[in-house]
Amino acid sequence: MEEFVSYFTDKILSDRQNIWSNNIGTTVGTAFPPASSFAANTLTINQGYNGANAILKRSFVTSIFTNSNTGDKIWLRLLLTESKVGLVNDILTISLKRAGVDVTPLPNEITLRSYSENPLWLEMILPYTLQSASDNLEITLTVKSTAPVQSSSQTISWQTLNLFNRTDGYTNAIDIVDSATRKSEYVYTFFERAATISKAPINSGADSSARIQSEINNAIATSGEIIFPQKGAILVKTPLSISGGLFMKGRGTIFKVDIPGSGQELFTVSTPERIICEDFTIYRENGSVMPTSFKFTVSNKDSIFRRITFENIPETLYLDYVDGLVLDSCTFVAGQNSIKIGYTNPSSVKNVTIQNCKFIGVNIACIWAKSSSNLNIYNNRFAVGSVAPERNIVVIPESGDNQNLRIIGNVSDAFIKYSIRVGTDLTATLKNVLISDNCLVDNSGTTDCLPIAVTGKNPAPSSPPFSIDGIVIKDNQIRNRAIGIYVKDISNLNLNGNSVIGQVGLATTRGLYAENCVTPRIIDLNLLSGQILTNIITP
């Protein structure tokens, strides 16, 4: 059983259902006069007795969950009060039965905790795995036979019983009620509406597009969350749309896409609200001409893609109309171009972060940006698959004043033309660029590829600032077959601390080629080894 605390957070939910007064199941009690008495949900142990074997008991059926399935993990939550601190912990045992068979969790799996705001409230949590969608369960609290004799009358009240599974969120709130005569504390339990659980079949020839679209729409209208528990392939043959905020999470799920029409995407995102996608794979069947996976059609803010695998998709992901999007720990396998930034509307893109991703066997370009407003490319891995990509990272803005480009900590041993290519096109300018701590190995087998190439435009008359102004290239590790670092038409260049190691004996290796990078500039403290041709720094 996984830890209860892994799935729940303490937060007040703005959209919630109050089931504080929802009495789940039937209350049954056994009294042992004069040692104890039972009234409503309360067990009283009279003075001078220990109340041994007195019980509080409830029976209920788990079919109250609309999304319950065999094998689901649920938690049973009891809210108790006691008249003496520590009474429950000292004298009670708990048992759980399913259809008369004992299924009580181990003691170390049961949580018993109090609220600091009011220590007389106790919360007891029992984990359980459903054996069917409608298990008949019974919880019993029994006074131990070894319980001590009570010096005064003591009571234990069973306030309520809740059930919830790992897709529900909950919180506790202590409300203080003031009146002319009293100041009381009340504990409430709020439940978030349960996530939509996809029922799409796996490893089937049936198209699940309509079912998934209906489930997505339902999730957007209710909890804002859809979970795909399927560990297999779901066939999708029609494009899908996301029209509202959504958290979409898989469990190793594969969307096997076979969309016959051209010029389409799997998901069209038409909402400004955040979407979060985690832990699934989008795989294109070879016969499908679907060009891309996600496409944003309105300005969207702060969306996140985490641990998504994109496989065999020609134009994998278009990023237009996004602000603050994060791609984290995703994998891109095969295809022509993995990520295209600002391709249809460069000015609509800003604050994009691509980090900890893997690119394997991409054909043309892994990351190609036509816009660079606060673009961050961190700690990614570019590797050979069935082919090596022509380009790893290309950032060539087409228009506007682009600022703050950071390319840091990437590793590549797979590129044919460029690993890092930065430039400007048309009327664009680019300012404040940092290229550092990248490890680039030229295994192309050719003698004309460039690990790092940065070229600006020299305006007429020839005077700075140039179209690329203010760039630092430092602390990169490069093994090259031709020119290691090529820079041209840049103002305010700082190129230092790089290690450029040419392939021994190869007649085409040159460490640096800096052309028309006007002063002020710094070109210093670079390690240049194994170079055959002379470095060129002109003027």
What this model shows, in words?
It is built from 2 helices and 50 strands. The relative contact order is 0.06. It has 539 residues and is mainly beta. The longest helix has 13 residues, at 209-221. β7 and β8 form a beta hairpin. It is 3% helix and 50% strand. The protein has 3 domains: 6-191, Sandwich (Jelly Rolls), CATH 2.60.120; 195-282 and 289-299, no CATH class; 314-538, Pectate Lyase C-like (3 Solenoid), CATH 2.160.20.10. The strands form 7 sheets. It has a 22-stranded parallel β-sheet that branches. A 9-stranded parallel β-sheet has the order 25-29-32-35-38-41-44-47-50, with no helix packed on it. The model is unreliable at 1-38 and 166-193 (pLDDT under 50).
Short description:
This protein has 2 helices and 50 strands. With 539 residues, it is mainly β. The chain folds into 3 domains: 6-191, Sandwich (Jelly Rolls), CATH 2.60.120; 195-282 and 289-299, no CATH class; 314-538, 3 Solenoid (Pectate Lyase C-like).
What does the radius of gyration come to? 32 Å
Task: Quickly give the CATH architecture of the largest domain.
Answer: 3 Solenoid
Look at the helices and sheets and give the structural class.
mainly beta
> CATH-wise, what's the superfamily of the largest domain?
Single-stranded right-handed beta-helix, Pectin lyase-like
CATH topology of the largest domain: Pectate Lyase C-like
